[in-house]
Specification:
The protein is mostly helical. It has one domain. The protein is built from 8 helices and no strands. The longest helix is centred in the middle third of the chain and has 35 residues. About 35% of the residues are buried.
């Protein structure tokens, strides 16, 4: 038991350092791949399976997909219209979405990004931040009120730091989204499929809005409304 605790603590610490440093150096992909290797080693060392990461069959796939579709759409709109403008105001910086500019009006680039989101990003990030990190913290801290609050706070801050390459505003807004997904993960009984699908749909709606330039239109509309008050 003591060895398992030290392994858990060490893995959480190393994972946090890798994700933070690689994001600060604008190499988030390296951090994600490195932490996946660490997670695979820990699971192998314990003799556990994918169910330890929350990969448990939902009671209803249809209900899970429909719920994630609705929540993903709502959170994507909330991010563009509320969370990102709030983060910009609090940090005094605007979001750095320059890496997605190639998507605007270019369907060929859009579908490639969508493939990356569904085949890699949604799965890998949710495995790291919810399936592994939050499960480890729940085991270390317990699932009481203070343990859960600490779990959500730490995992959300790290999720934001892992997106620091989007600037301070991007890190803050992503951390807030991570907090919401974390709450959903806990409310869903630590089943990872719902967060994965929600994450995928958030990014899908977000990328489609960029493709259509709808994100810029919505931001200008919000700014105009704010100026008229």
């Amino acid at each position: 038991m003591e060895m398992s605790i030290w392994l858990s603590l060490a893995s959480v610490l190393v994972l946090s350092i890798i994700l933070t440093l690689t994001s600060l150096k604008r190499s988030p992909g390296v951090g994600v791949l490195g932490t996946i290797v660490i997670i695979a080693f820990v699971i192998w060392q314990r003799g556990e399976g994918l169910e330890s990461l929350g990969f448990v069959r939902p009671q209803s796939w249809l209900n899970t997909i429909l719920l994630s579709l609705v929540l993903g759409g709502v959170l994507a709109l909330a991010s563009t219209m509320v969370i990102e403008p709030l983060a910009d105001k609090l940090t005094g910086e605007t979001h750095d979405h320059s890496m997605f500019d190639g998507i605007r009006g270019n369907f060929g680039v859009l579908w490639k990004w969508l493939l990356v989101v569904w085949l890699l990003v949604a799965f890998l990030e949710e495995i790291i931040f919810r399936g592994f990190l939050m499960n480890e913290l729940a085991w270390l801290l317990g699932t009481g009120v203070w343990g859960t609050i600490t779990n959500l706070t730490f995992s959300s801050i790290l999720f934001g730091m892992a997106h620091w390459y989007q600037g301070k505003s991007g890190a803050l807004s992503t951390g807030l989204i991570g907090l919401i997904i974390g709450v959903i993960y806990i409310a869903g009984g630590y089943n990872l499929w719902l967060p994965i699908l929600i994450h995928g749909f958030i990014d899908t709606f977000g990328l489609v809005m960029v493709y259509l330039n709808a994100d810029r239109y919505l931001r200008r509309w919000i700014e105009t409304k704010a100026q008229l008050r």
